[in-house]
Amino acid sequence: MKNKFKLLFVLLLSFVTLSTTDAQTRKERKILYNSKYNYEIEALGVGQDGTKVFKIWGYGSTVGEAVMSAKTDAVAACIFKGLTGGAGAAPTPPICSEANIEVTKSDYFEKFFEVGGKYLQYVAVTNDGNPAGADRIKIKKGYKVAIYVQVMYDALRRQLEADGIARRLDSGF
Predict the structure, then answer these.
(1) C-alpha angle with apex 147: 144 to 148, nearest 5 degrees?
(2) What angle do CA 133, 136, 141 make, to 5 degrees?
(3) How far is the C-alpha of 50 from the C-alpha of 97, rounded, in Å?
(4) Phi, psi of 103 (to 5 degrees)
(5) Which of 18, 65, 77, 125 could form a disulfide with 39 if both were Cys (CB 3.0 to 4.6 A apart)?
(6) Boundaries of domain holding 102
(7) How many whole angstroms separate alpha carbon 32 and alpha carbon 24?
(8) Which pairs with CB-CB distance under 8 Å and at least 24 residues apart come from 38-46?
């Protein structure tokens, strides 16, 4: 009986230890959720030359705010984080690979990403997803909406290079 109790205690202790080491605390989840670098992206395939096609999720208190957030995040992901590969598309590195460029060039990016800003020129095609399906989810503080987006990646890169934000590909290492 004593051996069974010890075995049960050891199993219970190991289960609790394993389950708490991988779990995020509520505070960590909140920080991650509110992070401007938390993009949920799914590659959809290869677009026309010079474009990237993917599905991205945006958050907002209304559906419209979530859609605009997703458009902003789509361009920001191309600039700062890069895109994952999948569905026939290769992974794409970020346009600006310099660390903390969003901080060092904050004046430029605040103007670039303002409401109705220049970033909208590079969002070629959007589809607000399926309104009745899983592409619009009501969450505690608003909505989580997926859009299918085509970003004019090469044009965005050329503009950032012309503005002196991104290094030219032929500038060397």
Answers:
(1) 155
(2) 145
(3) 19
(4) -90, -45
(5) 77
(6) 25-162
(7) 10
(8) 39/73, 39/76, 39/77, 39/81, 41/77, 41/83, 41/84, 42/86, 43/83, 43/84, 43/85, 43/86, 43/87, 43/89, 44/87, 44/89, 44/148, 45/87, 45/88, 45/89, 46/88, 46/89
**Res. 21 pLDDT band, cuts 50 70 90:** very low
Q: Please indicate, yes or no, if residue 2 is contained in any of the structural domains.
A: no
Report how far residue 52's alpha carbon sits from residue 54's, in angstroms, rounded to the nearest whole number. 7
Decide: 133 and 72 in contact? Cβ < 8 Å. no
**Spatial contact of 44 and 146, defined as CB atoms under 8 Å apart:** no
Overall number of domains in the chain: 1
Whole-structure pTM value: 0.71
pLDDT above 70 (res 96): yes
Mean local confidence (pLDDT), 141-168: 84
Tell me, yes or no, whether 9 lies in a domain.
no
Residue 3 lies in a domain: no
Q: Regarding beta strands 123-127 and 142-151, do their DSSP bridges make them parallel or antiparallel, or are they unpaired?
A: antiparallel
